[in-house]
């Protein structure tokens, strides 16, 4: 009976560990998302773009604004050229895009350089301070518990056939012990499947690090700036592109060049919030849409977005988040 008692105890400990880890994980995840909005001012277009699609969306928004303002020219193949003699923009991110374009650089090179630059980091830190995105360190704690839950859940399922074999073939298994082991096997299956389901769901959710307050800000911005509304000026185009991606430029030809396959995801780049070009975790992602616009290019990931992760870029921008997602392929923006 010693083997059976030991096996029953192991089953009980494993099931209890899965339940405790799941409860702790859900509690930490809820705290991660429930940051209070500490800001009263309206967000700028590039802050909204980062919320909607991470670093990729923010850079694409700056490219669209500079192109519409006549400060940047997009040539065949998605090469970007600062316009000689044009006025110097006042925004730090726009100046960074022009500097990265140099005398002619591809869109993916500009996205990669600006996406991991200090101007993008400043936007990220501001959104963290406002409680609109969660810091990566906090998300890292949740991810470590997710890995533990996956391991415990897998052990539960591995132990099921061992338990059933003991019930069937151990000669000393009496009726009571056999019944307990049978119940234990059922509980192991339920715990294992439930734990893995929670793992998959929360792992996907962590592609985006946008908090509930951040999601509320995005909803308010989208209610003010409806998709498809005509944009006649630079100030008109910045927020639509920030919210809905390059298709909101209203310039299919330029969009197609910027969305060209070779320009969609920077080689070897990382994704910020599920979007390419950032220095954040590749499992993040935020919003989505830069590479799924009217040009017909396919999205890189995510909720219509990047589930993006770059390198693993996921959409919407592109978990990876957000993302951020990133969740970790790049998409959208």
Q: N-to-C SSE series?
A: HHEEHEHHHHHHHHEE
Shape assignment: elongated
Cα-atom Rg, whole angstroms?
24 Å
Distance between the termini: 62 Å
- Overall pLDDT confidence: 76
Strand order of the largest sheet: 1-2-3
Strand residue content: under 5%
Number of helices: 11
Report on the biggest sheet: 3 strands, antiparallel
Total strand segments: 5
Low-confidence stretches: 265-289, 291-333
Q: Which structural class do the helices and strands define? A: mainly alpha
- Report helical residue fraction: 55-70%
Write out key terms for the chains shown.
single chain, 333 residues, mainly alpha, 3-stranded antiparallel β-sheet, two-stranded antiparallel sheet, 11 helices, 4% strand, disordered C terminus
């Amino acid at each position: 009976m010693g083997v059976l008692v030991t096996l029953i105890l192991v089953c009980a400990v494993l099931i209890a560990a899965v339940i405790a880890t799941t409860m702790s994980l859900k509690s930490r995840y809820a705290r991660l998302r429930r940051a209070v909005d500490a800001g009263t001012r309206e967000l700028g277009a590039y802050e909204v773009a980062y919320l909607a699609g991470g670093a990729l969306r923010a850079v694409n928004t700056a490219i669209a604004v500079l192109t519409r303002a006549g400060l940047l020219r997009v040539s065949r193949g998605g090469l970007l050229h600062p316009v000689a003699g044009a006025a110097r923009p006042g925004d730090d991110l726009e100046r960074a895009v022009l500097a990265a374009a140099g005398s002619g650089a591809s869109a993916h090179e500009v996205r990669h350089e600006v996406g991991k630059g200090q101007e993008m980091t400043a936007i990220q830190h501001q959104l963290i301070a406002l409680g609109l995105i969660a810091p990566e360190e906090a998300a890292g704690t949740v991810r470590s518990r997710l890995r533990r839950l996956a391991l415990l859940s897998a052990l539960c399922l591995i132990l099921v056939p061992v338990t059933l074999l003991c019930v069937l073939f151990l000669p000393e298994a009496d009726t009571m012990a056999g019944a307990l082991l049978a119940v234990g096997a059922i509980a192991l299956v339920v715990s294992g499947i439930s734990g893995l389901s929670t793992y998959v769901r929360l792992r996907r959710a962590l592609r985006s690090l946008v908090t509930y307050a951040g999601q509320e800000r995005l909803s308010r911005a989208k209610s003010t700036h409806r998709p498809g509304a005509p944009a006649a000026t630079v100030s008109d185009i910045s927020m639509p592109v920030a919210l809905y991606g390059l298709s909101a430029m209203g310039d299919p030809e330029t969009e197609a060049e910027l969305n060209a396959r070779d320009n969609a995801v920077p080689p070897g780049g990382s994704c910020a919030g599920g979007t390419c070009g950032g220095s954040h975790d590749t499992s993040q992602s935020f919003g989505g849409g830069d590479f799924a616009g009217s040009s017909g290019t396919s999205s890189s990931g995510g909720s219509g977005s990047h589930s993006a992760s770059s390198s693993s870029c996921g959409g919407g921008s592109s978990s990876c988040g957000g993302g951020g997602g990133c969740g970790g392929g790049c998409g959208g923006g």
